[in-house]
Design brief:
Blueprint lengths: L10 E5 L3 H13 L4 E4 L2 H9 L4 E7 L2 H16 L7 E4 L7 H5 L4 E3 L4 H13 L9 H4 L10 E5 L3 H14 L2 E5 L2 H10 L4 E5 L1 E2 L2 E2 H11 L7 E5 L7 H4 L5 E3 L4 H17 L1
Parallel strand pairs: 1-2, 1-3, 3-4, 4-5, 6-7, 6-8, 8-11, 11-12
Antiparallel strand pairs: 9-10
Helix pairs in contact: 1-5, 2-3, 8-9
């Protein structure tokens, strides 16, 4: 490969404990004109991510160093949420919890597919300087004179709750979050929210339970509900929560934005 004539400003961070693989990847990215930073430990990786360096992509072994890639991504969701879609992971097979954790934002590549790995990470890094490439401009909403709409977020997974709160905050919602259906019902008993966004499966109740409670106790809030579920195929959602959208966890956030915005606008125009 021929190095480009104009060097890129964004660097590639390689996270792995296999020195031979790091050497191969370093040479591949340097051949394409990228600066490369290497982290063989979780501490080194998070130190790089906290530095002023502009990170264009993070290439991480999911299982490296007893799950280093997963650990670094979890750290990024809390401390460097802006990089949540800039990771490319290496693993021989899809790991447990991968889909739920990355929410469709990151790709998984086999470690022996070096060319594909470099192509994907390079594409991410080449676009990092373009604000429109992250999709954040599409998510930001000007709510007008009505101000920030109120949203009740119901999610019993602390990690999911954390990144959802950040994402919805970027959209401009005023968020109240709870980690159980019991806590949600306490809020809904006398509270009013313009949108209710709830996980379908929780330890203390399902989306169908929440829907039924609203029908019986707060029917005016039923039309404001949007549900999320990690398992959609074959499920009888239309019967259990008729008329309410149930979105797959991990899908493009733009679809969720459309549903939430439509609910707010319909409510404010009524």
């Amino acid at each position: 490969m021929t190095a480009p004539s104009v060097p890129r400003s964004a660097s590639i961070l390689l996270v792995h404990d296999d020195s031979a693989l790091l050497d191969v990847l370093t040479r591949a990215f340097e051949a394409r004109g990228f600066e490369v930073a290497i982290a063989a430990t979780e501490f080194a990786a998070t130190s790089h991510l906290q530095s002023p360096r502009l990170i264009g992509a993070v290439v991480a072994g999911w299982f490296a160093g007893a799950g280093m890639g997963e650990a670094v991504y979890r750290w990024a969701l809390t401390h460097r949420y802006d990089l949540r879609a800039q990771f490319v992971f290496m693993a021989p097979t899809p790991p447990e919890r991968f889909i739920e954790l990355v929410q469709g934002r990151c790709l998984l590549v086999r470690p022996d597919e070096i060319d594909e790995l470099v192509r994907i990470a390079a594409a991410l890094a080449e676009n990092i300087d373009d604000p429109s490439s992250t999709g954040q401009d599409e998510l930001a909403i000007d709510w007008g004179p009505g101000g920030k709409p109120t949203l009740l977020l119901i999610e019993d997974d602390p990690l999911q709750l954390s990144w959802m709160k950040t994402l919805l905050g970027e959209m401009g919602f005023q968020i109240t979050s709870v980690e159980s259906q019991r806590a949600a019902l306490a809020r809904l008993a006398d509270g009013d929210y313009e949108v209710i966004l709830s996980d379908w499966y929780m330890a203390d109740g399902s989306g169908a339970d929440l829907y039924g409670w609203l029908v019986r106790n707060r029917p005016q809030l039923v039309s404001r509900c949007v549900f999320m579920s990690a398992s959609l195929p074959g499920h009888d959602f239309p019967r259990l929560a008729p008329g309410r959208p149930v979105l797959p966890k991990g899908q493009d956030a733009g679809t969720m934005v459309k549903h939430l915005r439509s609910i707010v606008e319909e409510g404010r125009s009524a």
